[in-house]
User: Fold this.
Amino acid sequence: MNDIILKRGFASDNNSGVHPAVIEELVSVNRGHVVGYGGDPFTEKAYTMLRKELGSEAEIFFVFTGTAANVLGLAGAARSWNSVLTASTAHIEGDECGAPEKFAGCKVLTVDTPDGKIRPELLKRHMHGFDFEHHSQPAVISISQATEMGTVYTVDEIKALAGYAHSYNMLLHMDGARLANAAVSLGLPFRAFTTDAGVDILSFGGTKNGMMYGEAVCFLRPGIISGFKFLRKQGMQLASKMRFIAAQYIAYLTDDLWKECAAHSNTMAKELEKRLREIGGVTITQKVESNGIFIIMPPEVAERISKEYFFYSWNEQLSEYRLMTSWDTTSDDVNQFADLLAIMMSEKK
Amino acid sequence: MNDIILKRGFASDNNSGVHPAVIEELVSVNRGHVVGYGGDPFTEKAYTMLRKELGSEAEIFFVFTGTAANVLGLAGAARSWNSVLTASTAHIEGDECGAPEKFAGCKVLTVDTPDGKIRPELLKRHMHGFDFEHHSQPAVISISQATEMGTVYTVDEIKALAGYAHSYNMLLHMDGARLANAAVSLGLPFRAFTTDAGVDILSFGGTKNGMMYGEAVCFLRPGIISGFKFLRKQGMQLASKMRFIAAQYIAYLTDDLWKECAAHSNTMAKELEKRLREIGGVTITQKVESNGIFIIMPPEVAERISKEYFFYSWNEQLSEYRLMTSWDTTSDDVNQFADLLAIMMSEKK
Amino acid sequence: MNDIILKRGFASDNNSGVHPAVIEELVSVNRGHVVGYGGDPFTEKAYTMLRKELGSEAEIFFVFTGTAANVLGLAGAARSWNSVLTASTAHIEGDECGAPEKFAGCKVLTVDTPDGKIRPELLKRHMHGFDFEHHSQPAVISISQATEMGTVYTVDEIKALAGYAHSYNMLLHMDGARLANAAVSLGLPFRAFTTDAGVDILSFGGTKNGMMYGEAVCFLRPGIISGFKFLRKQGMQLASKMRFIAAQYIAYLTDDLWKECAAHSNTMAKELEKRLREIGGVTITQKVESNGIFIIMPPEVAERISKEYFFYSWNEQLSEYRLMTSWDTTSDDVNQFADLLAIMMSEKK
Amino acid sequence: MNDIILKRGFASDNNSGVHPAVIEELVSVNRGHVVGYGGDPFTEKAYTMLRKELGSEAEIFFVFTGTAANVLGLAGAARSWNSVLTASTAHIEGDECGAPEKFAGCKVLTVDTPDGKIRPELLKRHMHGFDFEHHSQPAVISISQATEMGTVYTVDEIKALAGYAHSYNMLLHMDGARLANAAVSLGLPFRAFTTDAGVDILSFGGTKNGMMYGEAVCFLRPGIISGFKFLRKQGMQLASKMRFIAAQYIAYLTDDLWKECAAHSNTMAKELEKRLREIGGVTITQKVESNGIFIIMPPEVAERISKEYFFYSWNEQLSEYRLMTSWDTTSDDVNQFADLLAIMMSEKK
Assistant:
């Protein structure tokens, strides 16, 4: 493989590799025979460590991907005649190719938000038709923490949504693909803005922050689900050699590796933000609260720099682009990108 | 972890760990940034290596598990009003918790077989109702190679089933969770008993033979599928850091690692068979053609030895049990188990 | 329309028209405006009449077809990871094009029976894997009364199956597409062999016995379902002008119209049986206990007579055919058919 | 039944009964035996009549309800990874309890509109992500004609949407639950604003305009579907005694009964509109182009008059209500309602 292909860029935090400590733990558990499908001591250890973070009542199930964690988490709590309310920018709406609808059979109803964060008042338009059989019954509010726009819910905002959901006998689901970035951003332990803030169902991810694969569906309160282990298997998400997902979570939660990785990633985002703000003609469109930066730049510059760096267009009409930092981004990476962009912008004028 | 928990036994070939060469390759690809979701050079390399084994027209898609490979492979070829015909012992019938029905919406129709192998004449009972809208339309015949009973289809048997399927405009699907064990058993390259024998869709697995996770859905002929990449994503089976599945296949197919592992596993099964045949009161119920051995032993002995070794009951009424060897089984493992069983059997008398 | 096309034959009890009393009631309720979707007084009246037959705790929901009644009844009680156990001749297995799998997502597991009637001992092969997440969890036993083979379960047989089901914490479902024919055959009120015999879920049909369309899903015991009204709507089975289904049930249950129709149909079957038994070379293969007669006759004769009478082949290999009588079959119909068959059989020799 | 219950109001056009000519035809086809499930001459006749209206290439399938017609029509054309784009007021979005998602597995994406009518420029926000596997692939644009807001698309508006859809290789679906009202409003034959305007899939309804039950799924161009007859059966929408749906369509299309009924209904809406406009404090919020009138009135008046007349709240926050006229509404009905409302409004001041 040539080096150009493997150059660190800002396309996505899943373009990065795996933290060495995670690899080490994979090697460490790779000995002897253990019962498959989660009946092994490593899985039990990892679940215990997660419960230490999230509360002793949490029921935890490993699956393979963030999409699967979201879909199975929702399917565990919602029946096919229910609806899930979320932001129009949510991963479950725009980036899962209809997996929630296909697997859970339910509706996903969205609200537009300026910053990827929903608020109770935005949800009102979908809060009707209760008990009316023609209408999908609202059952879950789903938020992403950090959001797909790089913003982060405060504890109070989450509590308000949880209270709102519970007042309608609904549940609050959190897509935590970037949970660590949010925790670092808030300066809080996981529990403070999940279980303790009223979240009922959590997708606890790590792949975007140094893990290889695997995600944890966490039911944070008793009584939410029944038969979930069958749903996971039927959902094609039961790992035979589950110890290797467990190993990654063990590494991730040991010595706060998650925090180290996310803190670094967030810091790099701040550095990148600072550099980008200095470049004339480049506009930052969202608060940089985790590891995503959304910028508007001229399309011809975007096209030119994308020959050196792969990244995603967010809104073609606005010429808005998404940049993501990662646990392995370096200040050099930031500066090289910013220098290049600065040159291209100046050449444009 | 104490050593007892990690003792190598004969419960399942997925109770073993990962071959060191696979780990090495995981480490090797863990550098730099690459595009996620399969747009990376490692995935392309692995797909090329698989096409070298299966034919240049094969379309290949990595997923996470054998269940997913089977279900998505079937769902790619069958519509919800179709039926899939298989042996009553097939993994898709008894071990996937209804995932084919849930995801593909189709029927799985079974035939009883003495040895896990279906033959065209056994299928006749389901070959009716064509074009009759009240009846699910037979669309796929699914076989497992090696079978769940440890037996292996010959090339001629597969060709007969392929010809039969194609004469009805149906497709032949092969669950190859233990494809390498079958290849070694037949002494043939993969292609000889898959693509060249008329198989249309193949689940090419490696997790039971030294890999960590990941499976390849292979459409061996053009024109079988359309839109499959969407189905994979919607099926929650698109890996973000796909290079790490690719790496495993690269290792698995380099220097015939698959053959080394499977040959060893099959040899250990033969050794275990030989030892078990010498023990009075123990009956072997199926031909040992790959790495599975099915035995009848007195239930009280089974219970006693299961305190030392975990393994699965196959047929409670018959007091039949399944033993599986693995790529890491040693002759010592075989002899220790056989010695212990021999002692327990003699003590019983 | 010419008369040949409209000739009464023995193809199916749904080839007949609608009883005049049913038409009369349709006309009778066709006045004024009433709330749609079942919130009308006619629907309430019909439900009350059905509860009088089935017990005051029955929860009743009208749907459009027998297939829908079966599928929704099962989907109301079973989750996608469950299995439904039934006879291989059951309508839900062979005649609903996979609707149970598609809509409920569950597995349908079958047992072969000589006469369409399942017995507890036949079910044993599927009674395993409880709580094992790889295996669909048995949740419902489904029987047809009368069966698709024209046979009828006795009360004791039903009680035995109910007891067996309940001992496993499973439910007993009854497909009553020909419930009236069974009731007449047994000489019992509906309740005696449904609610009182331990049946939990009942599809109470009338279309094959003089109605036009519509079927009742009946949950005979409290606590079986929740949210079923949403499932019915989502299942596309909520009638807007529901009073016209209700009207049919009102007519059907008034002055025991159901009994008059079914008694006539059963009697005609007995007459036809008698005549057929007198014809050399024709074999009756099943007990004639309701309105179906299964016969073996030479295929060339079958082909010849099918030019005059349309009917269905049941088992091509055996040259077995199904004849059904209907509420409007006459003795003349029976004799004309039997006479013609007798002539054709004699000409063949 | 007392008369109050059966009083004609303005709740819904499905609260009315069945036109006598429809009943007559039901009686007329109720003779002799015919093959079930649509293999009868009445169904063929009805299909021919529909093809005369819609074009000779139309493939037509009867189902039971409008929801079923929409869902099966969409499911016939879209795969589970597709999305359907529609107005947020569409029946498929708000009134089918998630049936499209459950049965077709696809996403329904909406746009807000002022009048229930979508325009190409409104759809732009969903027209992206083509070929991107993370994103549901837009496949169908669905419009209602007349809309749920009582408005009617012009031929040019439909052509613009069809052209837009086809330019993206998408299909145009029309929910024609009130197709006749639209035809009368436009003064055009069905074909002019369906097949000839580029519509690909049509739900052709009549139940809201004098029929009892039944709806026609019409694929207006060849090559859109394959295997649809199986999908209909699996979707629990295959009527056994289909002649009775056919009979209704025969009556509906004979001597333009549909036109007579819809013209009357539309006229009554105009009369009601005229009367309501004369009442101070009552605002009409949508153009009255078919048989629906949307009004804002004080909530306390709405509550008071709803004790005499049942009708639906449309937007609680706005105190907006929906009134529907029907084929059997009389001028007296209109005047009595308007008089009462006028009195109540005057008493309020």
Observations:
- The CA atoms of residues 99 and 187 of chain A lie 33 Å apart.
- Chain A has two domains: 19-256, 258-348.
